[in-house]
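User: Before I run my own analysis I want an independent prediction to cross-check against. Here's the chain; please return only the structure tokens and, at the end, one sentence I can use as a sanity check.
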Amino acid sequence: MKDDSSPFSYYGPTRLVFGRGVTAGAGGLVAGLGARSVLLVCGSGATRRSAGFAALAASLEAAGVRATTFDKVTPDPHAALVAEAADAIRSGALEAVVAYGGGSPIDCAKSAALAAANGGPILDYVRGKATPSRPALPIVAVTSTAGTGSEMSSAAVTTDRATGQKLGYTNESFFPRLAIVDPENHASMPAGVTAATGMDALTHAVESYLSLAANPLSDAVNLRVVSMIARSLARAYRDGSDLEARSGMAVASAIAGVAFSQTGLGMVHGFAHPVGARHGVAHGLANAVILPYVMSALARDAAPRMRDLAAAMGACRPDADDRSGAAALVRVIVDLKKELGVPEGLSGAGIRPSDAPTLLADAIGYRSRPKSPRAFTDAELGRLLDAAIAGDLEAAWAL
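Assistant: Structure tokens:
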């Protein structure tokens, strides 16, 4: 059990502007930051053609903010893409970066803003070969999904295509100056994307709450987040036009981002990153599949706090005994996965047992591994990955 008297710090400087239709006022908010020219970062598909993007672009123009559109972002943005965006910022002498979309455009925008301010490849900073001397250019994030929390976090993920790795990097200047969260932008999200991104948000809150670096403020946020997701995610999945459910998910995703910026995450993400980088599995889907297996293996060491999470999700009484509370958390996650059409095991997402050694070699070096409430050995992580591939929860419980 964590001691509430332990020292901690909590830094979340992003201004969050939430509400239906607030995208229409984005231009004035960006201008209020002093920016008169921005790189507008987004994907090239449906997001670029969406009503939300059009509203954002029109609002910037009306506010006198010159926007240069960079619409090349792909899922899991790679280092060369970041370099291209950074070059666009420098060549246009742009003053800030505005991202529209989900985690990929926002992460690309963050990395490009840092690279443009400092020069040099983003992977040099990510791998510790260089230290940035200047903060990233001001970042504004306007969301179209509810999951990554990147709009409120100090982290960004960049894919190194040469090694096939997704690499997380944290910098205080990655906290966006402004996060604009408009649930109307989320209403057109397909059901599958709603499920994957929503489970990503749930994983953030669960892993952050169980982190050894958790603190009373992050605890309060994370318990509220899992409660909101339990009420809203399945509803948003069943009916994308349910703006009450969309609003609940939008807020939950955003505030989870600032919480996990304080605490780090855990081995669900440790496995999900290589699964995504090496096999193209969407990040939220990978988290969704893996989450109950890691939770089962953590019950030995984290049962009391797992019980807290289960109670917040309405899956058990607050005074349930630790072991049954931990089991209730796994059960409610499994039930939610089924309702959202998530595969039972990683084999259902195309991962084969023969893929395990390469995935494990990447996962054991996950940067937040030391914050796990259970100090897994490499061999235990290997057996846990095998269980997640096979869809064998009993094997995970037995670890």
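Sanity check: The chain is about 50% helix and 10% strand.
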